[in-house]
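Please, structure for the following, as tokens.
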Amino acid sequence: MLLLLITFVIPLSISAQASGGQVQRKTSPTKRHNVISHSSTNRCSVIKISPINWNMVLDTDKIKLDNDREKALKLLMDLPNSSSYIEERAEIQKLLLMSPQIITEKELSGFRKVRSIQIDNYGIFSYDFFNCIFKMDRNTIYFEKITGSQRKSGHLYKKDDWSFIYLGAYHFIDTPKAKYGSERSESGTLYKLSDNMLLMVLYDSQRCELLQFAK
């Protein structure tokens, strides 16, 4: 009788220890997982760029931004043939036909030069490169063209993995900065064409401005 009691108690004790070991092994990884997830969330919240809120975009700009590259390309190709800009038109056509690449906010600060290419019914007008900056501003990216007679400033909002929406305004060297929604308001879409080139399309009915960025 005593032998049977000992036999019963010993396995029960071993089983309890084994069960306790299992509980510890399950609990410990779960706690570590929660810590990693929490810290990862904090890191993401620091660099997260606000997605575009279409309610803050003017209705007229929503129309302009829709398929802006295709509209700019049509405006370009509808220009009358002219030997004065035939080569330049071919180069701009290539830019507008290039497939956008995935773009991140981190790489924008490396682009510090920008030039304007303006297209309207009278032809193509290109300008030299001037200085510009991209920098973080809360949960948006602030852009500014800081040299040249005509300047720009505004904010960029994430549209998708391939583009940002620009909402800003232009001003002149001797006038104060303007804000989006003012009479100098403008909007556009920023695309990455290569590691060394960005293109912003600012389409506006019968005219279009392209901003070509370089490092």
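The domain at 54-214 is CATH 2.40.128 (Lipocalin). Confidence is low (pLDDT under 50) at residues 1-46.
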